[in-house]
Amino acid sequence: MTLGLDERADPSARPHATFRTSTGEPYPLGATVAPGGVNFSLFSQHATAVELLLFHRFDDPEPFQIVRIHPHLNKTFHYWHVLVEGIGGGQIYAYRVDGPDAPAQGDRFNARKVLIDPYSRGVVYGRNWSRDQACRPDDNCRSAMKSLVVDAAVYDWEGAQSPNYHPANSIIYELHVRGFTRHPSSRVTSPGTFDGLVEKIPYLLDLGVTTVELLPIHQFDPTENPLVNPETGEKLTNFWGYNSICYFAPHRGYYTADWERMEYLTGFRDMVRAMHKAGLEVILDVVFNHTSEGDERGPTICFRGFENSVYYLLDAGDKSRYLDYSGCGNTVNCNHPLVRRMILDSLRYWVSVMRVDGFRFDLASILGRDERGRPMQNPPLLWEIESDPVLQKTKIIAEAWDAAGLYQVGGFPGERWAEWNGRYRDDVRRFVRGDEGMAGIVASRMTGSADLYQHLAREPYQSVNFITCHDGFTLSDLVSYNGKHNLANGEGGRYGAEANLSFNYGAEGPADPETEALRKRQIKNFIAVLFLSQGIPMLLAGDEFRRTQRGNNNAYCQDNGISWVDWSLLEREKDLFRFTKLMIRFRKAHPILRRCSYSWGEKNELGWSEITWHGVKVGEPDWSFCSHSLAFTLAGFDRDNDIHVMINMWTSDLDFALPGLPSGKAWFRCVDTSAIPPADLLEEGSERRVECGMYHVSERSLAVLISQRESLLPA
Question: What is the pLDDT of residues 573-628, one digit of tens each?
Fold first, then answer.
């Protein structure tokens, strides 16, 4: 993995000068290019001394200039500040901060440690970066990460504007920047980078998604994982990036080797600009719940060295220990006023300067805990995020749980928030697998989970529906493995969810053609249910052509073929890709699938209610515990077709009676997941007329019919 700057980039070519300084300003925080120089400002309440370090290169053993920030002349309240004249964008810098080293009181100052700025717009490092040395108490100047002054004003957006889709019309595609193009089969010129992702925009447009959700792109430490793959001896990494160390800087590893692209952030902004020009939104997965500094044994890289007791939740009985609601060693003190400010500043920065369209908040329930870790009824941070004027047009999505058991799906604080609907994922998995007692529950999930959200005066599009995501099995693995296969993670296979609600249909892993055919049908069932459901559908990258992680359901550490998207599968599974693409197109073509409210009382010109439930008999839904079938009709409005859906997750075929249509109209088949491609999904204009009042639905399959006027039917 590319860890840092190209060795050929040589900032040491800049003049060896001692730069003049003046008082500077406390606002804004961070390093800000100003007339005549750069203003530096940082927060530290209990520091006794602060040094600003200026470097020519990221791996210099010593700074070429040390600026001592005077505690009386260069300090306003708890903000230390200085203006360094004659420097600008591209300057490498860091800090040393002295103060009490009293872990039992919550203070962990160490004047020997080199710290990156919490407000760094860029972070630079190379192969010399050593997490191990950052964990030790001695000096680590040569091996530390450093901050980079960025001149964010230098960029031409070329008139690109966000498409700003209404949430009800959104289709989210979750991907990992590196994993999406790192595999040799991606055939991009800059694999594993923001540039490589730009090269795949035509593919995204062909698929039909509207919104790309990127796994964490904030600067993280890929070397955090100390383990090796016991099967190959390969050094493992923190591949996913859920270990942020700076909330303002794009991850250096996703840039090309061009120094200036990092200096002006053009790599990331080029990607956003290209996405917007193509009509695609960009959402960032953000991790404000914990940082890469870990527990009391972890490294001092940033926050711990500036003000440990402000940035982290500490055990009230022993402040040398961290409260851990994230499962990653520490928990950010999100509702402290200073930390709230930092989080909001970060979000505003990514919206106003980097022009992203929204955020998915990892383990968002932590953002509602107070300074002792207790859930708050009205968390100030969450309310400030949803009411902030700069963020009003952005999409905000909560992963409404945390690693300590707080589960808030259907009850996350606030009003504007959408939620990852984990209940949708689990209930649809159970139903398609064939579990009993699920027909009525899945009916609710497919109509927007009103049982979870309607009482909160929310709308269907605040439910983000998904079957799979980065965390867990891929869709192909969901129907191929009964259990996880995580030995390659070097943890003895211990970590990763035990309850996957998966089923292998008779064989663990690759199987005979008959079993594989059934598995593919189940994948199509999942995809069809997802895009027929009210709410925002989210698709995991590669599920549309059966990407596999070979049964690994926690591939956070696999920077290899386990996690990389293998694009050669696209040709092998082109029929599944076609099915997914056409299901997306079908959803876009029918407004009745993208409702903005839970009210189902209106009737169309035929007198049909917006939704009518059935079983194998018209108007007689089977809500019994042993039911494995579900049918419903969505009434068409404003020249839209009526849609009739029949789902049979039983192990035997079923015949469904069809609702009668008035003279001059007939039912037309467009989807049947049991049919041989391309008959499994017929494109608009080629649908097949149903000649009788019954439709035969094969075992473990679903069918979708639409009504059309006789004059529109083919001869």
Answer: 999 999 999 999 999 999 999 999 998 777 777 778 889 999 999 999 999 999 99
CA distance 219 to 123: 7
- Contacts of range 417-420, beta carbons closer than 8 Å, 24 or more positions apart: 417/382, 417/386, 417/462, 418/167, 418/461, 418/462, 418/463, 418/464, 418/536, 419/462, 419/463, 419/464, 420/360, 420/464, 420/466, 420/469, 420/538
Place of tokens 């796994």: 215
Give pLDDT tens digits for 101-134: 999 999 999 999 999 999 999 999 988 999 999 9
Beta pairing, strands 92-98 & 146-148: antiparallel
Q: For the domain 602-712, what is the CATH code?
A: 2.60.40.1180
pTM: 0.95
The predicted pLDDT at position 11 comes to 44
For residues 221 and 245, is the Cβ–Cβ distance under 8 A? yes
Tokens 């040799």 belong to residue: 184
Q: Which of 126, 139, 125, 131 is nearest to 51 (CA)?
A: 139
- Record the tokens describing residue 122, joined without a space: 């860029």
Distances (CA, A) of 303 to 128, 307, 528: 21, 6, 46
- Taking CA atoms, 20 is separated from 60, 321, 633, in Å, by 21, 42, 75
Single-letter code of the amino acid located at 413: P
Give me 260's structure tokens. Answer: 């200036």
Which member of 60, 174, 399, 610 is catalytic? 399
The two beta strands, 37-43 and 701-709, are unpaired
Q: Largest Cα–Cα distance of the chain, in whole Å? A: 89
Give the active site residue among 224, 263, 307, 362: 362
Percent of the chain with pLDDT over 90: 89
Would you call 571 helix, strand, or coil by DSSP? Answer: helix
Alpha carbons 117 and 132: distance in angstroms, whole number: 20
Backbone φ and ψ of 55, nearest 5°: -125, 155
Q: Which class in CATH covers the domain with range 169-591?
A: alpha beta
Do 648 and 701 contact (CB within 8 A), yes or no? yes
Q: What is the mean pLDDT of the chain?
A: 94
CATH superfamily of this structure's domain 11-148: Immunoglobulins (2.60.40.10)
Q: In one letter, which amino acid is 248?
A: F
Which among 493, 480, 395, 415 has a CA at the least distance from the CA of 169? 395
Phi, psi angle pair for 680, to nearest 5° = -70, -30
- Asked about 362 being catalytic, the answer comes back as yes
And the tokens for 106? 């919550």
d(Cα 430, Cα 445) in Å, to the nearest integer? 12
The separation between CA 83 and the C-alpha centre of its own chain, rounded to angstroms, equals 37
> Tokens in use for 630?
């579900």
Separation of first and last alpha carbons in the chain: 59
Q: Do domains 169-591 and 602-712 have the same CATH topology?
A: no
Structural domain boundaries in the chain? 11-148, 169-591, 602-712
Tell me, yes or no, if 324 is annotated catalytic: no
Token pair 């529906």 in the structure block, residue: 465
The C-alpha atoms of residue 526 and residue 520 are separated, in whole angstroms, by 10
Q: In this structure, what token pair is assigned to residue 86? A: 């004659």
Strand-strand pairing, 701-709 and 694-697: unpaired
The helix (run of H) or strand (run of E) holding residue 228 is none
